[in-house]
Amino acid sequence: DLLFDFLDELGQYYEGVFFIDGDLEHDAFDGDFDTSYNSLRDNINGMESVFFLHENIIILPNATLLATNGWTTFDFTSNHDINETMDFLEQRENIPTEIANKIFKLAITDQHYMYNSIENCQDLEEVTNLIVVTNSVPDPEFINHNEAYDSTILGDTTGNSGIIDCLTNDAKKKVTTWIFGKYPGDIDYEIEGVSFVNNPGLGKDPDIY
User: How far apart are CA 205 and CA 167, in angstroms?
Assistant: First the structure.
């Protein structure tokens, strides 16, 4: 597998390689997310210096890493009925509604994980410089300037509409940075002391939507 070969190679050259999954790592499993996550975990756990960040907080001397995929709530940039969005995806991207519902549940689970993890980090003195990493875009305002994403189904599937609320649990302002993916443009904002930076990829073809 190209992903595992790449991570294994990186582990030979770096003291720590930290990985969180995106959507593509699950595509081959036909909605069996338990199996896909177990596959990622089993393959990565055997690698030297490579760490899978799913449900795994890493506390380093000068930083703490907290990560999750985030998935999508299917309503990120608009007030569209999520069932209509799921129906559209079934017709245009061949994503069965059953799998879309599983993705929605994963998105809610990831929200709760982030809320609880940030709250638990508040009383840990060794947690400093808390860096959050998600695949999903955390705030629709970051992408609404792009008409291909503003109030469109593409935009609605690019982020998790509730995950950013986890910052309300950061009473001691330990979160310094939020790194995310999923969006092809460059984003670098600082909001209330938190730097939001994306790692841009190719993104999806807007013409599909």
Answer: 31
Of the candidates 156, 136, 142, the residue with the CA atom closest to the CA atom of residue 206: 156
Model pTM?
0.92
Q: What is the pLDDT of residues 133-168, one digit of tens each?
A: 999 999 999 999 999 999 998 999 999 999 999 999
Structure token digits, residue 172: 């001691």
Average pLDDT score over the chain: 93
User: CB burial class (10 A; 0-12, 13-18, 19+) of residue 57?
Assistant: middle
Tokens of 13: 């050259």
Q: Residue 90 has which token pair?
A: 């079934």
β-strand pairing of 194-198 with 175-180: parallel
Torsion of CA 158, 54, 59, 174, to 10 degrees: 30
